[in-house]
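**Polypeptide and fold**
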Amino acid sequence: MSLKRRHFLLFLGAATGTSALGALGCTSASGIARTAPGAAGSAGKTVAMRPEPFKPLKSPIPYDAISISADQQPLEYSQYALQDDIVLPDGFTYDVIASWGDPVGDSRFGYNNDYLSFVPTGPDEGYLTINFEYISSETWQQTYQAVTGKTLPFEEVVMALKAIEGKAVNAFELPEGDPLKAQIQQISKEALVDQGLGVISVRREADGKWVRVEGKSDRRISGASGLDDGKYLKSTGPATEIFNKTKVKGYTDGLGDKIIGTFGNCAGGTTPWGTALSAEENFQDQVPEGVLSDGSSLNPGEVTFDSEFGGQGNVFGLAGNKYGWIVEIDPSDPTDSGTKHTWMGRYRHEAVGVRAEAGKKLAFYSGCDRRGGHVYKFISTQTVSDPKSKANSQLLSDGMLYAAKFNGDGTGAWIPLAPNTAVNPTLPSQVMGGMVPLPQRPNGSFEKVTDDAAAQQLAAKFATLGDLYDGTPAEKQGAILVDAHFAANAAGATATARPEDTEIASDGTLFIAFTSGVSGGDGGPDKAVFVGPNGEAEYEAGWVMKVSEAENDPAALTFAWDMFATGGEPADGGMGFANPDNLAFDSQGDLWVVTDMSTSTHNIAVPAQRKDPSGEPIAGKGLLGLYGNNSLWKIAMSGEAAGEAKMFAYGPMECELTGPVFTEDSSTLFVAAQHPGETNGIRTAMATETREFEMKTTDGKTFLQKREVPVGSNWPGKVENSPPKPSVVAIRRIEQTTIV
């Protein structure tokens, strides 16, 4: 038994062959209800017997669960050929449900589909709510006409921007009637249309195949909703005090609490009462992130329209403080365009874990996916009566947002982001990279602080968070929520390692995927908490953390934590994957993990001796090419295989598999394949390259692998020269039984 697995079993408090988690059963899509998890599955097909476990895929990198000895691995792995497809174990297949450009309501299926919410409407049918995160600029341009049948003035705008110093323009200030402004409006609107949310209806046929069906609730809510159709999004909570102010220090769009669109929609969650939650993540690419001390927006010109089509909100004068929230939508209500609940805070949201237990307060968990981002929890003021009641949405209008403080000894506490909370900044010396962004006063926005004394000076000048913000008590609370990330830094919340998914097991345990533990322009993780398996600082491969609330109470203000799983090479203490992202539990309580390696790192060669041309050792991000394509793994939580990680799937070229969600019986796994061909676009004439990698066996011996790597993608059409299209698939066994 490997040391990693022995530690895993000790961690679970179990012995091999026993039930490792006992009561840990199935969970809903991202939430837990103490009644049946009615928001996350289909009644499905009754299965009398659990099928044989799948045979794990032979990934590009040797790992512990494969049946190949370390001595044989250099021979067995000397050659490896990737496929431009979703590759599954024998006995499994997938159905393409919908692809970019397909009709949805009065619009189209958007780009870069991410989180999926499945809410059943009966046996073998239900609503799929889909997030559309962003456009991959070059590939989107290359394939736009072929997919949509329309044209846009790409070349004209790019040429105009090349003639401008900085290759960007503040289109908001261009005069009406300016041809360039009109062209930028065209491109920006179409890019925003391809983001946001979509609702489609799906059904399983008698032969087991999943298909789309026409539904009266099918619709799109996009980044352009409300721009000229009147379909604004609503808002609740204290930030509405800021939106409704007419006299502000900064910029206002004049729309009050009405909001144009939603974009950057990355991960999300599903509530036990049947609504979908969408997390607005990288909104700072389209609108300004910083705000003034009254919570009002910076001028739209702070984020300009550029040659990669960033700054899509600029030309329309979108107010930056209205983006970076959690959006709730009822897929069954065709009139619902979504509500942004501002008690959840404004930051670069990833997933939403939901605990709704009768007689207890409602708890929502989410992470801020940036280097140095925080983990947050919202606790409602009122308690839950019936976890399945749609009245629970009203609980999101009153409560408190907290940010996590992780201590190096495995304990932690939740810090309220309230006006009376003391200013006690996270110090630059505590984090990798030595930088913490803090609220800048009196100028507003934020500044990147690299000196401990400068951070401590903030506490000397401002006693509480309320002192950092202006207005009435209600307006100060709203401004703190609008500026949540920087307020949390000022309050001393722990800087973490890009927290992505927050998933809750049915026993109430919280699992958090931390994708990457290195520093960057936004900050870095806490040195005492985020340490590699051998004590490494700046650990790229990431972790999955387990968090247990005190007395297992959703409203607890203290908790215990431990690292549950570690990414990286098996020879160095990792589980064989890198950069864990979305998580999901199946009906047996086993944990499924998808990876999120940056597309620019996929299959990048790692030469012999792992040194670059200058002779410097290659480490961290430079080694991610070893792992091949992004992939999907299962970690067994019980039984003889407890602690084992097995690769179940890998995605098409230059792609990320996202949003995994099971039907309740685990007979189907819905997955979104995002940005195939993101780097090289259309795979032309079935182009393939041979690249070399210095690999390690599971016991640490080195050898060279020659890998065949398709260049670009033709998925899902899989026809030579066909355009790659982000798509949603349903994965199932060919024989109609459960996946697990």
Confidence is low (pLDDT under 50) at residues 14-29, 34-49. Residues 654 and 678 are 6 Å apart (CA to CA). The chain has one domain: 3-733.
